[in-house]
User: Fold this.
Amino acid sequence: MMSEKIISVAYQGEPGAYSTIAARKFFTSKIQLIPNESFDLVFKQVEENYSEFAVVPIENSLAGSIHQNYDLLLKHELFIIGELKLRIVHYLIANPGVSLANIKKIFSHPQALMQCQSNIASLGDKSIIPTYDTAGSVKKIKEEKIMDGGAIASDLAAEIYKMKILKNELQDSPENYTRFLLLSKKERIKKDSDKTSIVFSIENSPGALFRSISVFALRDIDLYKIESRPLHGKPWEYFFYIDFAGTLSDIKCRQAISDLQELTSYLKVLGSYQRDLNYLSKS
Amino acid sequence: MMSEKIISVAYQGEPGAYSTIAARKFFTSKIQLIPNESFDLVFKQVEENYSEFAVVPIENSLAGSIHQNYDLLLKHELFIIGELKLRIVHYLIANPGVSLANIKKIFSHPQALMQCQSNIASLGDKSIIPTYDTAGSVKKIKEEKIMDGGAIASDLAAEIYKMKILKNELQDSPENYTRFLLLSKKERIKKDSDKTSIVFSIENSPGALFRSISVFALRDIDLYKIESRPLHGKPWEYFFYIDFAGTLSDIKCRQAISDLQELTSYLKVLGSYQRDLNYLSKS
Assistant:
């Protein structure tokens, strides 16, 4: 009998992190989740073949882009092969026996703290302690027996560490979604791919960005997102990250990229994948 | 004799924060610097007339935009009336008698930690502890007599708190600049103003961003920066912040804004001011 190969998926954080919830939705088969302390290590894991895939958050509907992962997409040679939008529900979690009145400190990842800013403020005077991970904060208050502290994380984290939920729906808006990317060292463009991500830099001249975007507009190619990041060593110049409708198997997309190459000093295709249509704004 | 009115300027952080260095460069006359724990409080200080001006960082050439302040520009009714680019030199600061070998923990603001990421990593295995302020971290390790900890802050902070500098030029690149904004409740457009900042939102339709930018391109108006931020409550829609060349006293800029108003669901002029030409990329 052949043993079935188990797919390994790297993520940042501890068991119970939101990335693990996203990772399980990407795959129907059994996966082995590999925790990592930093996003940098997650990218390296896949680049050096220790894991086959990685799942990383790239954008949250309340707090904005996770810029570090945009920078890492540029630095490492991985392809985006999928995306998934996950509704994020934050819980305030504490050690069993602890009540809300006991909580003096709140631990969580800065992104989660940002998504719950107003609700945390309404809890009164609490010390906010940023940590490297949501689920890792639950682990910390458990292991260090912090009885005057709470952690903001998923209900899965509360379950895994057998901790108590003091409050649910702690995020400031019910409309709190995070978009996750599935990354691989090998480019895998599936038949149903309909979205492509690229990164480029342009010289700092009048109209340069306009001309760059025009290669899409002139061909009625829809842009889903544009994001700029500083170009290190060249202050006030930027890399632009663009997500657009279509893949390089469409002739008009190939032509747009070819035109864009003439205008840019650097261009890299990050990957083509199927667009996740969940939670699109109804407006 | 009339007593001279001293100008009050609100900033985030503690005495010795980089914002205080920027604030002193904005004014030739004597100013009173008002420290605040958060950026939100800084904006409120000016809005509620407790301070006449505020100085806030908006963008760093290594770490990127300070998104929170973009969001606060939208939320509060203040005008941008000036900008200043400051070269940022970070120092590793400790209590007198402490040497580099003693340092196990490094305290600073997340932005400063990001700007020194690689250099911190090269110092070996240190715990990184994010705090609310650079100078505030120096104050903390002094007041709490933390002998195994260092803080990343300005040399001014080391001087104010009478602490020891262990390392200088800790930022990962010498090309580390922060752009600061001068804010006021009253719009004050000076004669030498040549740059304007606006924010707008557009409906999520193909080509919408292209059409918005075209109102500038068609009139040869240079765009200095474009930045997107999520629109709360409408996942995957964005506010766009644009800085462009010119002011509303130029007819072509007025016409561009008037055209843009037809295309946008929301538009706000944040202010016109003199562009700081320091540290422009030489490429």
